[in-house]
Amino acid sequence: QGAATTQEFYAKNSRWTEGLISASKAVGWGATQLVESADRVVLHTGKYEELIVCSHEIAASTAQLVAASKVKAEKSSRNLARLQECSRNVNEMAANVVASTKSGQEQIEEKDTMDFSGMSLIKLKKEEMETQVKVLELEKRLEGERVRLGELRKQHYVLAGGCEDAPEDGEARPAPAPRRGILKKPPIAQKP
To answer: Where is the stretch described as Disordered (predicted)?
Structure first.
């Protein structure tokens, strides 16, 4: 498309080329991370959640690779059709890994039955209040981690060249503080 050689084409479309290479590397990196996470889980040193995150990362990176390819490919391209078919297979396999991981996690984790029959009314109320405190602490921590995840994604996007206003010298500008009001959940109704 307007270039005599493949090298000229990639040079002429350098931003697109960088995006395509970045997406390809992300797929490979995700696969490596998935294998390493699976090894750790088998050795009981890793977390099942790592497998789930890696599976989602691979599926997302593959979708990004397909999207980048579609930008410059001809609609009748056989290679694009093959890539899209492979992407569907990757998504299906990633979903299978997630489902298998959750199933295995449920089978292995010990689930203690909650028996409160021997507790007095005062002890039950105390346990209930302590549990409410834990729930609120975890929700606050979860909100903080979501904000952190958003900032990490913004920075990744900037470093990957996704922002038009990114500085040319490669230095990342500090991200603006998130608007807290948008991210807050409504308060949970408490029992009297």
So the answer is: 163-192
